[in-house]
Amino acid sequence: MNATDSIAGRADPEGAGGQNDQEFPDVPQTVDVGVAAGDGAQRCGLIAIVGKPNVGKSTLLNALVGQKISITSRKAQTTRHRITGIRTLTDGQGGGTQFVFVDTPGFQTKHSAALNKSLNKTVMGAIDGVDLVLFVVEAGSFTLADAKVLSLLKPGTPTLLIANKLDTVHRRAEIAPWLRDMQERHPFAEFVPMSAKNPKDVQRLLQICEQYLPVQPWWYSEDELTDRSEKFLASEVVREKLFRLTGDELPYTSTVIIEKFEEEKSKQHNRMVRIAATIVVERDGHKAMVIGDKGERLKRIGTEARQELEKLMDAKVFLELWVKVRSGWADDEARVRSFGYE
Ligand SMILES: Nc1nc2c(ncn2[C@@H]2O[C@H](COP(=O)(O)OP(=O)(O)OP(=O)(O)O)[C@@H](O)[C@H]2O)c(=O)[nH]1
């Protein structure tokens, strides 16, 4: 395939800051293909979102998945890939497309020390067998860290270059030469300049992704969203904030247990969920680290986790966090099982 011909997606003209056709004169557009074309066929496949920290992967994932974040913890744990989100777009005739997004652990966390050893292996494992990779960078920029991530990608899997945060690029004229430069670096299937914060761009990206997913029956029900999965999501979000805000010092064996997950009736709010979670660490020193000076860090973990959960679950969330020391728990198989890791 000619790489120039394959430059595809452009962000929406009114969307990510008002670019128009004149501004990307030599960047051809893809033909618009409607999502869920309406022939009753089902498409389904795995999509990995990778990129260095802070390029907007989480923002993009949340936007692609929409409100119905769906973590199917049980099923997911039994497969090689861990599912972070599912989006099903129906065609009204029993068909449509199910986009299954998978986690790429090495890039989702800044806790690099603990992961470094197995980083390459983990990431390769996560990417292996997916139908499509979205390689996210900031539009107009390509750093050493981007190159490092890119070097882990296999040429065999179709990969889209997601040039995110297009809304922050003021000199649009520089994007076309940059795209050409990017096309030298990897055999990208398509280029998608966009903003993860622009719903129209996200919709367009789904349309592009759809073409890479095979025709096969959906793996999950159309609206998969169980109490269990939200509970799992809660523990994952707290865990992510925990590692993000403690940096590299906290051992990776620390975990989060959801003690309470209750939906309550509320006149004020559409949905209201009360969650109590315990962060289990191995030593007193780790506990102090998590709590921070005057409880400052624990408070921040709680606030950030609550805010994210409110967005993901579309609910008012009350989150109570505790920290417990349970020395050596990671070695105790029975206990590990009782925490839900099997
Ligand atoms: N202006 C603008 N900001 C964006 C866009 N997408 C993401 N951001 C912002 O970029 C920052 C990082 O976004 P995240 O989604 O957390 O990035 P990430 O790649 O998941 O980061 P890590 O979890 O650290 O790997 C946040 O402040 C987002 O609000 C975009 O399209 N435009």
From TrEMBL:
Organism: Ottowia flava
Name of one Pfam family that matches: MMR_HSR1
Main subcellular localisation: cytoplasm
Record's keyword terms, sorted: Cell membrane, Cytoplasm, GTP-binding, Membrane, Nucleotide-binding, Ribosome biogenesis, RNA-binding, rRNA-binding
Family annotation (PANTHER family): GTPASE ERA, GTPASE ERA, MITOCHONDRIAL
Binding residue positions for GTP: 51-58, 103-107, 164-167
Name by which UniProt lists this protein: GTPase Era
KH type-2 domain: residues covered: 238-327
Domain of life of the native organism: Bacteria
Chain intervals for the UniProt region annotation (G3): 103-106
Region annotation (G5) ranges: 194-196
Assembly description: Monomer.
Domain Era-type G: 43-215
Described function: An essential GTPase that binds both GDP and GTP, with rapid nucleotide exchange. Plays a role in 16S rRNA processing and 30S ribosomal subunit biogenesis and possibly also in cell cycle regulation and energy metabolism.
Region (G1): 51-58
Annotated segments matching region G2: 77-81
Gene3D superfamilies: 3.30.300.20, P-loop containing nucleotide triphosphate hydrolases
Compartments in which it is found: Cytoplasm; Cell membrane
Family stated for the protein in its record: Belongs to the TRAFAC class TrmE-Era-EngA-EngB-Septin-like GTPase superfamily. Era GTPase family.
Protein's membrane topology: Peripheral membrane protein
Location of the region described as Disordered in the Swiss-Prot/TrEMBL record: 1-27
Database matches in NCBIfam families: era, PRK00089.1, small_GTP
Region of interest called G4, as start-end residue ranges on this chain: 164-167
